[in-house]
Amino acid sequence: MPAPRRHRPRPSTASGLFQVLSWPRPGGVIVSLAGAALVFSAALNFAPVKADPWTTFFEEWTTTNAASASVQPPATPTAGSGAPAPATASASPAQPDATPTAAAATSAQPVAGAGADSAIQGLAAAGTTGVGDPALLDIGNAASPLVLVNKQRPLVPADFAPSDLVTPAVQSGSAEPMLLRAEAAAELERMFTDAAAEGVSISLKSSYRSYDTQFSVYNGYVATKGVAAADTTSARPGYSEHQSGLAVDIGDANAGTACDFNSCFADTAAAQWVAEHGADYGYIVRYQPGQEPMTGYLPEPWHLRFVGPAVAKEMAVRGYHSYEEFLDISGAPDY
Ligand SMILES: [Zn+2]
């Protein structure tokens, strides 16, 4: 057991573990047991669909979002637009009210909810998940950067709202107010800045969405496309990563808006840059091609999820394409 020390993960941690840990990736992709523990999600009282006369999602999005801005705008933006960006985000020094940094390095307990032999447990055993508070080493904890959210895993409680939302100081490509959890925001600022230095102009299109906002978004889809089609593109309220305050949708300011929220976004410089470098900032492309049986969503090269640099880099190094597989959790193709 390592002596308590300030968390300063070495860049080589991921690759070192890669060599040490046995390779066999968690295979069994779609394990049939959706799990009795997950059945509760079906029992959740899902509100009936409202028949809003929406035409298109994006047409209404701004209106909806503005109307539902019940979320308190942050009193203070993240520490300076310059984004001092600590060398390692996992130490999360910008976190105002969360875990003491000192504890961050030393929690070497298993990640609750993840498979016993899953890749993330290798990080946990080494105390290098980047998550210090033991209570947050739990993929079922909505307040954890490790939280798993999918069609079988709603946030608990369903109307969860993060307590440390801030406005990231980045280029916005939308009129909607932008909010993210503090650590995710700080890393996003660093990522956008570094991308810009290489001529890649990423813009932020969407970020935190409250339960109420997601309710409107999802039902807007249902009203125009029906439930089945809506479920392939929009999460039901309580089931959206955006509600965790850890997910963003991005655009490419140099490429115009034609490919926003569209499969052709994958061809933009922004999409390719984040696919290659996002892990350095703790972001993964959450819904990748061919992963629908695991993630439940068609590919979304614009949707990034913050899991912290340690986890994101480990996933990249070991070649995982879904967070579910990294956690050795059954796929969630449907509700
Ligand atoms: Zn998204």
From TrEMBL:
The keyword Transferase does not apply. Gene3D superfamilies: 3.30.1380.10. It holds the Pfam family VanY. Residues 68-106 are annotated as: Disordered. It is an enzyme of class 3 (hydrolase). Keywords: Carboxypeptidase, Hydrolase, Protease. Residues 179-308 form the D-alanyl-D-alanine carboxypeptidase-like core domain. Residues 77-106 have a biased composition (Low complexity). GO terms for molecular function: serine-type D-Ala-D-Ala carboxypeptidase activity. InterPro entries: DD-CPase-like (IPR052179), VanY-like_core_dom (IPR003709), VanY/YodJ_core_dom (IPR058193), Zn_M74/Hedgehog-like (IPR009045). The keyword Hydrolase applies. This is D-alanyl-D-alanine carboxypeptidase. The lineage of its organism: Bacteria, Bacillati, Actinomycetota, Actinomycetes, Micrococcales. Its EC number is 3.4.16.4.
